[in-house]
């Protein structure tokens, strides 16, 4: 038998990346970060920007888990935000109603939030656009949430198939959202330089007329291919 939960469980202590470390991820393409993490780290493809004019952001995660049909934990996150934080709201992909709209987005802006990311739904696109805060979600509906709990704030969550802890680095752009674990930030930045070098090399080759990848050319000339004509 499960014990009745309290309305909220909150972890207030968050180890955030230093501003200079966070700044090194600003403007980095999510695809390059994924490559620097062995092709992983991106949230489910369905989580995209509600406002296509506000897609790029970087910030430190403040996590929450909302119960079905509820956004009390998300709204409570506002009390624990610092400038540049990203609300990361897990809902177990509940699609019956919206957990964020213009009011929450407006308050998040006033608190200095860099973005709101959820695997749930949003509503009031016009109001979200007016807020200026990037909101990434799974879809849009007019249905609204209650704020009655239960939920958690600051605890690790799983959103879009990716585990996220408060303090992790969250980056968004047109391709989607990627999470860099705080513990791996330095390693990812080192690997990112190698990714950028490879990308620059490929760009130069494309500009010079490359039409077939070298690995394909080499494979076609090897004994690994049997020609039937």
Description:
The protein has 229 residues and is of the alpha/beta class. The chain has a single domain (8-183), classed as Ribonuclease E inhibitor RraA/RraA-like (Glucose Oxidase, domain 1). The protein has helices at 19-23, 30-36, 72-77, 102-110, 125-131, 185-207, 214-220, and strands at 8-10, 48-49, 57-66, 85-90, 98-100, 115-118, 121-122, 135-137, 139-140, 151-153, 157-159, 162-164, 169-173, 176-180. The strands form 3 sheets. Strands 1, 2, 3, 4, 6, 8, 10, 13 and 14 form a 9-stranded mixed β-sheet that branches. The chain has a 3-stranded parallel β-sheet with strand order 5-7-9. A hairpin with a 2-residue loop joins strand 13 (169-173) and strand 14. Helix 2 (30-36) crosses helix 6 (185-207) and helix 4 (102-110) packs parallel to helix 5.
Q: Enter the CATH topology name.
A: Glucose Oxidase, domain 1
* Computed structural class: alpha/beta
H and E string: EHHEEHEEHEEHEEEEEEEHH
SS field, number of helical segments: 7
Count of structural domains? 1
Helix residue percentage: 25-40%
Number of strands: 14
SSE map:
Blueprint: E1 8-10, H1 19-23, H2 30-36, E2 48-49, E3 57-66, H3 72-77, E4 85-90, E5 98-100, H4 102-110, E6 115-118, E7 121-122, H5 125-131, E8 135-137, E9 139-140, E10 151-153, E11 157-159, E12 162-164, E13 169-173, E14 176-180, H6 185-207, H7 214-220
Parallel strand pairs: 1-10, 3-4, 4-6, 5-7, 6-8, 7-9
Antiparallel strand pairs: 2-8, 3-10, 3-13, 11-12, 13-14
